[in-house]
Task: structure prediction
Amino acid sequence: MKQEERPNIAIVDSNTLAVLGLRQILQNVMPIMSIETYGSFAELQANHPEHFVHFFVAMSIVLEHRDFFLEHQRRTIVLTNSTDPNIQLSGFHCLSINQPEKHLIKSLLMLEQHAHAHGKNLPPITDVLNKKILSDREIEVLALIAQGFLNKEIADLLSIGLTTVITHRKNITDKLGMKSVSALTIYAVMHGYVDINKLRD
Result:
């Protein structure tokens, strides 16, 4: 039996550094997605755009090829440099890439949950990602890390020693193979261990 193909996302932007950074974050937020990057609209068109479930596209490219993206409005996320809603394109989902990483991750997680509430339209998560690998205490610690609490605050909240928190933290990063707080935050939200609205700004 043929294995179900992973859904495809296209990032279309001439800014290579922005593309690489966004690609890395998207791979963490949506691990079941396959992500392709293109420097121009012509490159996207040459690679069967109908196969993509979402387009993350620089605003300038959307404006130049407005007819195409209006036709695929529900699938298009416009990448902007501003968080001001007054200068974002109406009718499109917009994502400001000019913001701190944790804000960008929160925006992406909210976008993902809004578009795919309860996993709707997404293939099932693989057994490896779905398996519970952390102990209950490690999940508690992870949830607090994701909410932005420091080791000392976590120790106080859980009434455990600071060295115990550090040990739990090391075990969590070893088991998940993730070292950055951003990656841990994404994992915690995607597995339902913490509510997006509880993430500190």
